[in-house]
Design goal:
The chain contains 2 helices and 10 strands. By secondary structure, the protein is mainly β. It starts with a strand and ends with a strand. It has an 8-stranded antiparallel β-barrel. A hairpin with a 4-residue loop joins strand 7 and strand 8.
Length: 231
């Protein structure tokens, strides 16, 4: 059964949607046509490397206690072509291992994600640009729990492989010709194949393996702020 989800509660959606609308209104109110020699998005700098800095900013503002998900793609790379449009790449990797109750309970979580896409850019004025793009994405997730008792050694593992894609819309502001701030929204459809296994060392007859699949609609609002360097 298809599932559609948004990653954040409705209060967060309203707040960040309002913030994004203000930025967009300010950008659209600027002069739409400028001389290319005046723009901060100079033609000689085609590479752009970016990172999600939202968590860092929240910590600097005294909100270190608020845990903010860095998102599926905390690292990005873009290559701008001669006509102004750009190829886009996103990467996300995380690994987490925890031991509890004197190593009797261990969890292992691993996540990897890759994005490839293309974006069409519109330069609003010398500092602002907006873009529309299309992405293809792939996810790989492993969640594993190991429970050790005097009676058995049990491993429960959930493995998921997902592919999909969809449209993306973003806005960027050039602080200088090399430093850019940006945010974006996306709507991805993701098809995932999942395998759940349960293994019992002392009772292999109880081992189980369940396969399933799921289609998810993933709406991501412009919640994150990216800092990019151009060269």
């Amino acid at each position: 059964m298809p599932v559609f989800c948004c990653r954040y509660p409705h209060q967060t959606i309203l707040w960040y949607s309002f913030w994004f609308a203000i930025l967009l209104f300010q950008a659209l109110s600027a002069e739409a046509q400028v001389n290319s020699s005046e723009t901060f998005f100079s033609d000689d700098k085609r590479h752009e490397v970016g990172a999600n800095v939202t968590t860092v900013l929240f910590s600097a503002l005294g909100n270190a206690s608020n845990q903010i998900d860095p998102g599926r793609f905390p690292w990005s790379y873009k290559y701008r072509f001669a006509k102004g449009n750009a190829f886009r790449l996103g990467i996300g990797v995380s690994v987490n291992v925890e031991n509890q109750d004197r190593n009797q309970f261990t969890t292992f979580n691993q996540f990897g994600s890759l994005r490839l896409g293309y974006e069409w850019r519109t330069y609003l004025d010398k500092r602002w640009l907006t873009y529309f793009g299309i992405d293809a994405i792939g996810d790989y997730t492993v969640e594993q729990a190991i429970v050790a008792t005097q009676f058995d050694f049990t491993t429960i593992k959930l493995e998921s492989i997902g592919i999909g894609g969809g449209p993306v819309f973003g806005l960027q502001f050039a602080l200088t010709k090399r430093i850019i701030l940006g945010t974006e929204a996306s709507l991805y459809g993701i098809y995932a194949e999942k395998v759940r296994t349960e293994l019992f060392s002392n009772n292999p007859g109880g081992n189980d393996r369940i396969t399933s699949n799921q289609f998810t609609g993933d709406l991501t609002i412009p919640r994150w702020l990216y800092l990019s360097i151009r060269f």
